Amino acid sequence: MADADPRPAPTVAEIEARLDAGEWLGLDDLAILFGKDKSTIARWVRDYRRMSFRRAPAGGRRAKIYCNPVHVRALLDEWRREHGGENAPKT
Fold this sequence. Notes:
By secondary structure, this protein is mainly alpha-helical. About 45% of the residues lie in helices and about 10% in strands. It has a single domain (about 10-85), classed as Multidrug-efflux Transporter Regulator, Chain: A, Domain 2, CATH 1.10.1660. The protein has helices spanning about 10-20, 25-35, 40-50, 70-85, and strands at about 25, 55, 65. It has a 3-stranded antiparallel beta sheet. Helix 2 (about 25-35) crosses helix 3. The radius of gyration is 13 Å and the shape is globular.
């Protein structure tokens, strides 16, 4: 069994900086950014098609998913307008 990753989880500010730099973000990052469970974010991507995504090369069904930063930013801004920043802290 592999040891847990000793690195601390990135902060919302760090993730937003990567997002604003145009980086495609993984589900773990989006879960932190939106304050939701990773499975919820995966369902948003799969069921609602609100964000375009791509799978990591040579992945298959369980490959890591990365979401388009333009779509993530639009959804995050919409989320913050509707929820007053709730569960999606501003930097």
